[in-house]
């Protein structure tokens, strides 16, 4: 039987992009990773990688076989996950990547409480990152993400958690100082934002566009953005679930509540189709708790 380990090593190297990162993920030394790739090149008489002191890029031959090697890697991961599932033990660490703004979402908090109560041997590890984290490079089991680029990676398996609308919010003190009765009043307010955006607004047969990002304060962390708005520095848009508790408690006030902004689909995505028993348990709880929140909103 042909040895497939070098192919798996090559696929991991393409994902990690450096010998050192691939070696760490594979649990071997960087020279061992290099030797596996060199073995393939020597045995089949092709060059798979262009090597420099800083970068590794696949040659034409390397790109030609890259997808086949990636499929082989995914199949092997699925096989090991299936073995873990057959074992049925719900225990161990589950790494969950999510944006910092979601830390305040009631459904996430309920999910964590349920997980710890129902499966005390599972250890959740939360990887807060407001970008689109590479799940395989970060060794993450689940990512919670939304937006237009959430499903750009065709290798990810997505499960819809919820659909949430954007809402405009401010601290009550700021709202009291800056009267906003129509969309055109928003231009006179100070805006805080994570990234520039253009969001459509609707009230019945009326339409408007909300433009964010020409002026104001840009904040590169969603959790910090929420804290600054709570402190009364200006307006910002948030997904409604991320500020549900703030709105209910009065810490924030919704601006133009009779206008509806666009919605975002939020997904739980995984790098593999077959999951370990512990990851399946976490996914089940997340889906159930976010469904509860969505049902209450209807």
Automatic annotation (TrEMBL):
An MF annotation (GO) of this entry: DNA-binding transcription factor activity
InterPro entries: LysR-type_TF_proteobact-type (IPR058163), LysR_HTH_N (IPR000847), LysR_subst-bd (IPR005119), WH-like_DNA-bd_sf (IPR036388), WH_DNA-bd_sf (IPR036390)
Domain spans labelled HTH lysR-type: 1-59
GO BP, sorted A to Z: DNA-templated transcription
Protein name: LysR family transcriptional regulator
Family named by the database record: Belongs to the LysR transcriptional regulatory family.
Keywords: DNA-binding, Transcription, Transcription regulation
Species of provenance: Neisseria bacilliformis ATCC BAA-1200
């Amino acid at each position: 039987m042909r040895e497939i380990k070098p192919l798996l090593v090559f696929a991991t190297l393409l994902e990690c992009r450096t010998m050192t990162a691939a070696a760490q993920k594979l649990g071997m030394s960087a020279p061992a990773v290099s030797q596996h790739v060199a073995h393939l090149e020597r045995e089949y008489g092709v060059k798979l990688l262009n090597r420099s002191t800083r970068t590794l890029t696949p040659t034409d031959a390397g790109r030609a076989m890259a997808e086949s090697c990636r499929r082989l890697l995914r199949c092997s991961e699925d096989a090991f996950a299936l073995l873990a599932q057959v074992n049925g033990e719900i225990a161990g660490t589950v790494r969950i990547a999510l944006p910092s703004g979601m830390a305040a979402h009631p459904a996430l908090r309920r999910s964590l409480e349920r997980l710890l109560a129902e499966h005390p041997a599972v250890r959740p590890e939360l990887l807060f990152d407001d970008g689109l984290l590479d799940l395989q490079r970060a060794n993450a089991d689940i990512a919670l993400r939304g937006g237009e680029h959430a499903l750009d990676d065709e290798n990810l398996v997505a499960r819809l958690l919820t659909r949430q609308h954007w809402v405009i919010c401010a601290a009550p003190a700021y709202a009291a100082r800056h009267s906003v009765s129509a969309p055109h009043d928003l231009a006179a307010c100070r805006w805080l934002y994570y990234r520039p955006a253009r969001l459509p607004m609707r009230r019945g047969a009326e339409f408007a566009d909300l433009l964010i990002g020409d002026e104001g304060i840009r904040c590169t962390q969603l959790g910090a953005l929420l804290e600054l708005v709570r402190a009364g520095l200006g307006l910002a848009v948030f997904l409604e679930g991320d500020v549900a508790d703030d709105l209910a408690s009065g810490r924030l006030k919704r601006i133009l509540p009779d206008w509806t902004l666009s919605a975002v689909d939020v997904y739980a995505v995984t790098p593999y189709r077959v999951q370990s028993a512990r990851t399946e348990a976490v996914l089940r709880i997340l889906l159930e708790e976010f469904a509860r929140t969505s049902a209450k909103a209807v």
